[in-house]
Design a protein that fits this description.
The chain is of the alpha+beta class. The chain has ten helices and eleven strands. The chain folds into three domains: 46 residues; 136 residues, D-amino Acid Aminotransferase, Chain A, domain 1 (2-Layer Sandwich); 78 residues, Dna Ligase, domain 1, CATH 3.30.1490. Helix content is 33%, strand content 19%.
Length: 295
């Protein structure tokens, strides 16, 4: 498939999407137009809702009513997803909650304990690690209450989430634990992404469910060093399958593990990277799609 010229096209689309984000109506039509422009900008080709390629499938979820499935909306919220995980696979897989703060006033008066993770429940990508007695940026956290992630990404599952802040323990006593993300299709685990040094020099590795390393990455460079198979892999895959069986099509189940015995479900992600993340190299998307979708 021919990729569209990227030098001049990216400049035009880069300006266009900034304008569209302001001008387009906040409805499904506006979401679709914005998503189409972004897809061409990010992937250098036109999207096809019927093409079973990874980013086209994400695009189809994003612009269709699938993203509005009530269960997808519920489990987008970082507080409520724990209710679902607890009910489906059990309490042992739920990251403990220390506190949920529901207003700026609660943030201002709350005494944050040491060694915690602070996140908005209604957005993605924002996180603060409070190590020891380090000060907490109260104004930044309060600012989360004024932000609607939908307006940044047009991912409609975020649109009506109530702003909240969740405080959790720092799992396994350290900040830089790896993220294991299991992509599932029609209830079956198909591909594993490992994010390494996410808050430093971010790298990724990809494996099939037998822990056979794949020769590509997505958005971030591929980590060069070998990465050992965790002893908890089979358990993570079983839990991912139990969760994914409740969703149609593609869904991502995210985990934290000590690699030996403890496994926690971090969150459930319904549109990986908003559908914006290109493959490295780009032509690897076809092979990855064959693996995920059994093409």
């Amino acid at each position: 498939m021919r990729a569209y010229p990227r030098s001049w096209l990216r400049k035009v689309l880069g300006v266009l999407r900034k304008v569209l984000l302001v001008l387009l109506p906040e409805n499904r039509f506006g979401d679709a137009v914005f998503s189409w422009v972004n897809f061409v900008f990010d992937h250098g080709r036109l999207p096809d809702r019927n093409r079973m390629w990874f980013n086209d499938v994400l695009y189809a979820i994003k612009v269709s009513d699938e993203i509005l499935d009530p269960l997808r909306v519920l489990t987008t919220d970082k507080e409520y997803v724990k209710l679902f995980v607890r009910a489906v696979v059990g309490e042992k897989y739920v990251v403990p909650t220390i506190k949920v703060l529901r207003s700026k006033e609660e943030v201002n008066s709350y005494q944050f304990p040491p060694n915690v993770v602070i996140k908005p429940t209604h957005m993605s990508g924002r996180v603060i690690f409070k190590e020891g007695d380090a000060p907490v940026p109260i104004s930044e956290i309060q600012g989360w209450f004024d932000q609607n992630y939908y307006r940044e990404t047009r991912e409609a599952n975020y649109r009506f989430l109530r702003p909240k802040v969740i405080v959790e323990p720092m799992l396994f006593g350290r900040k830089g634990i790896e993220d294991y993300k299991v992509f599932c299709y029609n209830g079956r685990p198909r591909l594993i992404q490992v994010d390494i040094d996410r808050f430093g020099i971010h790298r990724r590795k990809y494996f099939d469910i037998t822990w056979r390393e794949q020769d590509f990455s997505i958005l971030y460079p591929k980590a060069e060093n070998a990465f050992p198979r965790p002893m908890t892999l089979d358990e993570m895959l079983a839990v991912a399958q139990g969760i994914a069986s409740y969703f149609r099509g593609l869904v991502r189940v995210d985990f934290y593990t000590d690699g030996v015995e403890r496994v926690f479900v971090g969150e459930i992600t319904h549109c990986h990277g908003g559908g914006h993340e290109p493959f490295l190299p780009r032509e690897a998307e076809r092979a990855a799609s064959e693996l995920i979708f059994d093409l």
